[in-house]
Amino acid sequence: MSRSIRKGRIKSIMHRSKRQRWVSSTWERVSSIGLPDVALWFRRRLPILEWAPKYSVRESLLPDTVSGLMLSVQQVTQGLAFAVMSSVHPVFGLYGSFFPPLIYAVFGMGRHLVTGTFAITSLISASAVERLVPPYSGNVSNSSLGPLGLSEFEMQRIGVAAAVTFLGGIIQICLFVCNLGCATFLLSEPVVSSMTTGAATHVVTSQVKYLLGMKMPYISGPLGMFNIYIYILKNITTATVAAVITSVICLVVLVLVKELNQRYKSRIKMEIPIDLILIILTSLVCYFINMEHNYNVEVVGLLPKGIPIPQAPPMGILSDIVVEGFSVALVGYTVSIFLAYNSAKKFKYSVDENQELLANGLTNVIPSFLFCIPNAGAPARSFVLFSNGAKSQVASLISCVIVLLVIYFIGPFLCWLPMCALASIIVVALKGMLIQFNDLKKYWNVDKVDWVIWICTYVFTICFAANIGLLFGVLFSIALGMLRLSRAKTLHLVHWDAEYNKMLEGLNSGFFQTVKIVSVGMPLFFLNAKKFQADLLKMNDKLTGNFVRKQKTDLLLSPVSNGDSNGEAPILQPQRSQSYTLILDCSGITCYDYTGVTILTQICLELKGQGTTVLLTGCNDSLVKALQYCGLESKSQTFLDSVNSALSSLHVQTSQTSTLEAINTTSV
């Protein structure tokens, strides 16, 4: 008994000492952190501390103000439309246009990136809302609830959308913690371009019912876009004539004015805010003519004033929306990071992919407690900042002030805005994404494989959904990349240049015929190891074949006189067989695996057995160690620093051999 007690005491003492050592080491690391380290960390995680102190009011405030005013119109209209697209009340789109830009201005690095409600994430959210809270279900009532004055049905729907927003943000923050922002290298430009174009096609399809003034059920699932058009064609007689006329007029006016703005951009100081003008005119016409009752035109409806009290999303349904959460996280971040890349490239600054993950995660998690739908970087609104010369995130902050005024004061006046006019604004705003079809010409002329990736990803996106299209595009491009890597040219024959000829000046031309230099131009993995082996052996067979034929020709053309002076015919005697040397430049093997090293070792040993001397140059220390471990002899002359070192070594050996032959000939 006493022995067991002593063992227990010893274990407790050892455990206590380990814990004390861990605490002391942790305290040492913490105490070593100084004030500059803390300041650097805050600047990295709060980019606003980096650019705000350098902000020039004189140079930047005016263009930022103009851009912010133009942006606010887009934020309001697209916020209302994308909320409807997300199957929630339009007012929640205004909240989604106010809170996310505020948060991104603090944590985001894209100075010209606009975050907020986004078409693709709205469609993803709508699938969860329609599945969990279908319309006309008997589980909800239409009684008013809370200060917003909305029905329980509307509150349950925004609860589902907010839960999708929360889960998507949590996933993005988890990816940030795991430092997976660097995984964007898997996203090629053709994949993102085709995915966003396919998603824009889905968005246009979702707006057709509003353009035609039709009532139709929610249709989703595989080939859902085609089923929507089939339903529209079958029920085209139910279209509202007034809505169709209004849509045509709005579309024509929007396209013409925006084209004029773009064409005469250099001549006018500020673009014509046609979206704002159209909202005002259509709302006034709808109010005075009473188009909602007289012509059966659907309008936005009453928008509650003010900002609601924060409320946590319903956590009990998170397990039911995992697919939508991951889709919002991945698709939203993909679009946002590419917009940030383009912004940084155009205006000459850098962005941190991992910090963008954190910023996108926070712009989803925090607003989810304020009844916001999923958000991401918005291409059309970011282009507004590009085209109006915005300098920083101050433009987004100014637009947030305007949106806040709309929420408190102007919102009630938007109740007469026709949904067909709102849909027209959305369709025209998607022009920038739809004209990405022009990229097909670029990909066809540069790389037809990218053209194929674009087409296939677009087809998958329109047939299924944006998240499915993105996943297919990434996997398809990786598969094609691996196939191309396995079939790519792994080595090439290096021709003698002036540098080598000058270095080896004085040698006979036969030296150049007995030495060949082959350069390996890519990493050596299991994907291309077999191709590398086949290419090298094929090249070696070709080179040795030419060398043997040259030796035979020299043999026939080199008579040795063994006759006497009486004119007897000379007798041809064979010359001494010369050795063949292959210099393998391995400086291009930047990385490798076991299969690649094994294949390289096997080739060297096989060529040595055939009488070919193989010299490896440019190998790093780890590659030399791996080759030696796999069975390649460790003689110093096998591994050399460079091609020049190998040629110099051969030069010395050749000179010594020639001297010995001359001595032997003289002695004979």
Automatic annotation (TrEMBL):
GO terms for molecular function: chloride:bicarbonate antiporter activity; oxalate transmembrane transporter activity; sulfate transmembrane transporter activity. PROSITE patterns: STAS. It is a multi-pass membrane protein. SUPFAM superfamilies: SpoIIaa-like. GO terms for biological process: chloride transmembrane transport; oxalate transport; sulfate transmembrane transport. Keywords: Membrane, Transmembrane, Transmembrane helix. This is Anion exchange transporter isoform X1.
